[in-house]
Structure formats: C-alpha cells, structure tokens
Amino acid sequence: MTVTQPAGANRAAQVVLRPARVSDMFLLMDLADQVGYCLNPEWIRTRLRAEPATEAHVVATLQDIPVGAAHVYLSPRQAPGSAVRASVTALAVDEDHRAERIGSRLLTRCEELARQMGAHTLEIVIPTRRHEDLHEFWHHHGYARDGSSPFVKVLGARP
C-alpha cells in the first residue's frame, strides 16, 4: 500500500511512503551506513521477502528518490496471554533530509503497521546509547522508558 500526502510547504508532506523492494537494497545499506551500521546484502534480501503479516519495511521517497526507511516486526509473545508487541528495529533518514519530519512520518507508519499486525505496544529496539540525540524524538512521539526496553508506547485501537 502506498501512502501519499498532498504537497505543501513542509517537505514531509511531499514524501511518499511505500513498502521497500529488493531493488532498494543498496539504499538501505547506505542509510544503515550513515547511522553507523553495516548490513549484509543477503540479510536485507531475506528480510525484504519476509511474511508481511509479521514484518514490514517502509521506504520514504521524495520526488521518487528514496530518502528514508524503517523496519517494524511483530515480536514473539513472551508468555501465553501476554500483550502482543511489535518492535521498530530501524529508522533512518538520509543525512541530507534530516529535520524535515520524514522520520516522524516513518514512525507514524510503523505504528499503523504494528496495529494492523495486532500489536498492543510498540518498542524501539534501536540501540539508544549510540543515538542518544534521538531520545527527545522518541519522547516527542509519546514513547517512554520501560524496564524491558529503552522506549515503549502503548498503541491505541485502530483508527
């Protein structure tokens, strides 16, 4: 499903979010490199072919050029009857497009996808020590520290 916002003064409003494709592999590797991670191309290829009911990769494009990406997956239940949890394991915006609210759009889409997967909570499992400058970003979007995860948000019902 492709999500488009009407064009406006804000660049984030011009961003188109779409599912990632195998052809995005090198973009994903570049974005990971920009935030200090080294990804194996075969690992990316495998993840992009994962079951969409439990895992999703989202790419943000601006004028058909990929400028950001995120990954969300449904976490296995910790115990029978426990709340269903999803995790954001990656959220990166190209260094030339930061501070344009693209990360906010990607995070909102991850929340929507987590709800569609049946999750009640969404946790951020991106190493926070490496990216302490993002703590305010998580707080701004309603995430709070939790004993089991650096940042967690209880998701409301599907809109």
TrEMBL record:
Domain (N-acetyltransferase) ranges: 15-159
PROSITE patterns linked to this entry: GNAT (PS51186)
Cross-referenced CDD domains: NAT_SF
Gene3D superfamilies hit by this protein: 3.40.630.30
Record Pfam families: Acetyltransf_1 (PF00583)
GO molecular function: acyltransferase activity, transferring groups other than amino-acyl groups
Domain of life from the UniProt record: Bacteria
The name this protein goes by in its record: N-acetyltransferase domain-containing protein
